[in-house]
Amino acid sequence: MKTALALRHLAFEDLGLLAPLLRERGWQVATHDVGVEPLDRIDLAAVDLLVVLGGPIGAEDDARYPFLPAETALVRERLASGRPLLGICLGAQLMARALGARVQPMGAKEIGYAPIALSDAGRASPLAALEGQPVLHWHGDQVAPPAGLPSLASTPMCAYQAFLAGPHAMAWQFHLEVDARTIERWLIGHALELQQAGIEPQAVRDDARRHAAGLQRALTGAMARWMAQWPRAQSRSNVTPE
Questions:
Q1: Measuring CA to CA, which residue among 52, 48, 45, 8 is closest to residue 171?
Q2: Which of 89, 158, 168, 190 is catalytic?
Q3: How far apart are alpha carbons 192 and 111 in whole angstroms?
Q4: Is CB count within 10 Å lower at the N or C end of the chain?
Q5: Taking the domain 3-232, which CATH number applies?
Q6: Which of the following is catalytic: 13, 71, 110, 177?
Q7: Is 175 a catalytic residue?
Q8: pLDDT tens-place string over residues 128-145
Q9: Sign, CA torsion 61/63/65/69
Q10: Mind listing the pLDDT tens digit for each residue in 90-110?
């Protein structure tokens, strides 16, 4: 049985829709709580898919969260292995950091459901399944593009929303995994952030329900296309982490 391991930074920012999608395909799914459980307990060789989830901290905020350098090193090791890796929001930022790119504040928060514009590279990628589908944005930081890796998607606020670091490694700044049935956990857990951004929880709640079916299809399609590329992945990545 193949194993998927999620690195989780916040209890309610979990695998969401990804967990049943993987289990239905015969995967065993496990979670490792970063900052609580030591990272050196992870045997990457025993993990078929590593998913690095989101969280409301800065990817370079080592002084406040001293586990971040070790987590970045773990992501760098996974990138170099050529084995499947998915980074979501903070996870995408940690992938970019592991590749030598900077992660910095945008100066504003991008929160709520809105479409992304796919680039030509995006339309030729697994994210082609997202064409026209609003996705959930929830971030205040952005990454500078890692060298040689084009943006797959953009929004007016954030030009670099997704990238591929070889066929085995995909990063999303946005969220496809959030389950509309559990969005209330996000609205409660991030209540202060929503208030500071002037966003009404009901607007997010309504959009989550409105886009639930479309996001389920988009996630299923994107993951199926991405997984189909894995047999073509090289034993080591063609991108050298710095």
A1: 52
A2: 89
A3: 13
A4: N
A5: 3.40.50.880
A6: 177
A7: yes
A8: 999 999 999 999 999 988
A9: positive
A10: 999 999 999 999 999 999 999
